[in-house]
Amino acid sequence: MAKRCFVTKDKIEEIKKEIPTPFHIYDEKGIRENAAKVKEAFSWNPGFREYYAVKANPNPFLINILREYGCGLDCSSLTELMLSKELGVTGEMIMFSSNDTPAEEFKYAAEVGATINLDDITHIEFLENAIGYIPKRMSVRYNPGGVYSVSNGIMDNPGDAKYGMTKEQLFDALKLLNKKGVEEFGLHSFLVSNTVTNDYYPALAKTLFELAVEIKDKLGIKLSFINLSGGVGIPYEPDKEPNDILVIGDGVHKVYDEILVPNGMDNVSIYTEMGRFMMGPYGGLVTEAIHEKHTYKEYIGVDACAVNLMRPAMYGAYHHITVLGKEDAPLDHTYDVTGSLCENNDKFAIDRKLPKIDVGDILFIHDAGAHGFSMGYNYNGKLKSAEVLLKEDGSYKLIRNAETPQDYFATLKGLGIVEGLFR
Ligand SMILES: *Cc1c(COP(=O)(O)O)cnc(C)c1O
Question: What pLDDT score was predicted for residue 41?
Answer without folding.
Answer: 98
